[in-house]
Amino acid sequence: MYAIVEIAGQQFKVEKDQKVFVHRLAVEEGADVVFDKVLLIDNDGDVKVGAPAVEGAKITAKVVSHLKGDKVIVFKKKRRKGYKKKNGHRQYLTQIVISDIVA
């Protein structure tokens, strides 16, 4: 059984006991979170597609930790002009574990 759910503006395909890294959620570590914007549920071939969301479906997850992602380097250069610009970015992430999928 899997579901496609929208979490913090992004869509994820999730299954039970799966660890997912999402954009930072404003919830403390160890707390439970409920996501009710479920777009699709597949229960062993029985597919329910929402328009836009499946009625009564929800995903419960537990927040494991808050962390920062890998550094992404942005480097800009114009040849023969002496222009070089180096910039870095680290995204704030939250690791969650999917604990239950309710159809």
Describe the secondary structure blueprint for this structure.
Blueprint: E1 2-7, E2 10-15, E3 19-23, E4 32-35, E5 38-43, E6 46-49, E7 58-68, E8 72-78, E9 83-89, E10 92-102
Antiparallel strand pairs: 1-2, 1-5, 3-10, 4-7, 5-6, 7-10, 8-9
Task: Please explain how this structure is put together.
The chain is an all-beta fold. It has one domain (2-66, 95-102). The protein is built from no helices and ten strands. Strands 2-1-5-6 form a four-stranded antiparallel β-sheet, with no helix packed on it. A four-stranded antiparallel β-sheet has the order 3-10-7-4, with no helix packed on it. 14% of the residues are buried.
Q: Which tags fit this structure?
A:
single chain; 103 residues; four-stranded antiparallel sheet; 0% helix
